[in-house]
Amino acid sequence: MRIFFLINLFVQVSFVHPTHFFGGTITYRPYNNSQVIGPVSIIVRERLSWLRSRYFPYCSPATISAQSPMIGDYMVVSCLTGSCGSHWTYGVMNTYTWCTDYSIPLDTASGEYYNTFSIPINVAFSIGYASCCWLDQLGVGWAGLGWSVVGRINTFVRPDGYLNTSPVAVTLPIIYKQTAISHVHIVQMSDFDGTDILKCRWSTSSSNVNSCDECDGICNGLPGGVTANLIGTNCTMTFTLATSNWYYGVALQIEDFFNNAAFLANTPMSSVPLQFLFYGYGNSGGCSFAPEIIGDRPNRACIGVMPNDNVTERVVVQVNCPGKSIVDFISTVPRGITKSSILNPSTGQYSVFSSNSSLHIWNISGVYIVVLSWFPRLDQFGPQGVCMAAIDNTNIQSNQWCITFLVGFRSPDVIRPQLVQGSASPVGTVFQNQTTFSIQTSKFVNRPTRNATFIYFRNASGGGSLVQQYDCGWEPEVTYTGYTIVIRFPVAPWTPGHFFYVTMDSGTTQSHFSLFSPFFTIVRVKGNTLEHTMHGKDGKQCVAVRYVNDQGQQQIDMKCGSVEAHRWFKRVE
To answer: Which CATH number does the domain housing residue 457 bear?
Structure first.
């Protein structure tokens, strides 16, 4: 059951000028979620972003590769409320992180740190760190606004008999938005516990599950704040930035609920902070379209990978204004991911797969590519978020693009069908009134959590024109049952004698690829039909279908492997 609610708060997005802190998050997961006898091993992860020029030597490819020196303020992550004890003593964790990303134009550096702690079973407590400053003397309001980032750890055994894993939310530290126009921004949330209900809310200074100040200087608005609407169940914000060349601080808590009753009672199992910045820029005139990330993965896709896999992903960007080019990428990535230099800045070559699975190279003006490479570590089990945005030579940023790698789980692949005997049903020649189709996968599949993940039915005889598409994220015509995806058409849309095929967006089955492959052909069948299966001299299985065609003639369609033949008989009176 999905419950949507809308929060309309004035100045919840706060107006700030950062000195050296750019936001962060805290998450946790059990090493073994089926262990219900304590103490249990809990892996706590923090991700923080800072002013790059504050910490020398500056974050660079060399420091990322060496994982040294660490960056950040040496601040203690303390137990603030709840069952504090010897399991979380003063100084057991601080805010030093391994650098993973940096941007020279934006003067940002981000990093993460995680460690394993022995925690008693059936306790809950909140940890966090507070320091200064979001603001310097040039800021609006008063100088020196502090920060507070607070997360909640819970080792109580869930009603389903497992230990809880906190949600994960990922974002860029700074997101550029043009002023004076309305924006919609979605924060990607994910949870290893796939049945949990997730909600994001504004962080508050009191009256919350953490029983403490979650946000300090950016809880309440300053002059220059904006009205922001928040849909909690999908973490979607709508807002308009008022002032150019200023930053707007955002403080959210992502919380998970075991079921709808817990959701309605507002009793989350854990609470994850997420803090970041919007930056407002004005329209400078001329062509001001932002660059756009167009592939290879759709925004908010989820991909399963195994530890030590050689993971390679391309991020493809289209520049939408003449004379503009991509000069940098700002990113948030897990430890160990490396990024290539920006590729193809002159020719803009972009390779794509066509509908018949053949590879084409398109010379598209203004296309740029960066390649991500990664060997996931054993201690990175679970969801790992990646966010990126491209920056052009006028300092305009693309929209944020985020995907989630689920480490420790192999993505289910669609089993590509073979003609006559295959994994797609029906395959080959089918009746015009056929309304149910099924596709087999290599692993158990669930409906994707990301909407706008489509399966397409196209008319090959009509130049690939779209016949029907369904959003696998929510439309009832698509169902997931075990290892099978079933598509049911209310009305059969097929044209007699035409060939049709199916394609899928990446993420339809949380697959590791987009699917462009002909699945079946369709012809119209009238009157009595007779189907007969036989074997040819070469041992190949053949299927013969006899029916009355549109011209009133008896027709036999014969298929032996991939070879088709047609024979017409006299007109039927």
So the answer is: 2.60.40
Reported confidence tier of residue 262, pLDDT bands at 50, 70, 90: very high
Nearest Cα neighbor of 384 from 408, 418, 361, 366 is 408
* pLDDT score at 456: 86
Reported confidence tier of residue 441, pLDDT bands at 50, 70, 90? confident
Q: Model pTM? A: 0.75
Q: Which of 359, 357, 361 lies closest to 501 in space, CA to CA?
A: 357
Place of tokens 């407590």: 125
Regarding whether 318 and 405 lie in a shared domain, the answer is: yes
Provide the domain count of the chain. Answer: 3
The answer to whether position 448 is within a domain reads yes
In angstroms, rounded to a whole number, what is the distance separating the alpha carbons of residues 517 and 354?
9
Last residue of a domain, one of 362, 385, 410: 410
- Side-chain-side CA neighbours of residue 252 (13 Å): 31
Asked if residues 190 and 167 have their Cβ atoms less than 8 Å apart, the reply is yes
Residue corresponding to tokens 């981000």: 110
Contact of 280 with 347, CB cutoff 8 Å: no
Residue 499: which domain range? 424-522
pLDDT average, residue stretch 380-408: 92
Q: Is the Cβ–Cβ distance between 384 and 405 less than 8 Å?
A: yes
Cis amide linkage into residue 193, ω under 30° from 0: no
Domain boundary among 410, 434, 449: 410
Q: Which amino acid is at 120?
A: P
Tens-digit pLDDT profile for residues 90-141 = 889 999 999 999 999 889 999 999 999 999 999 999 999 998 876 553 333 3
Task: Tell me, yes or no, whether 450 and 337 share the same domain.
Answer: no
Instruction: Please choose, from the candidates 487, 491, 490, 492, the residue with its C-alpha nearest in 3D space to the C-alpha of residue 502.
Output: 487
Cβ within 8 Å of residue 104, ≥6 positions away: 52, 328
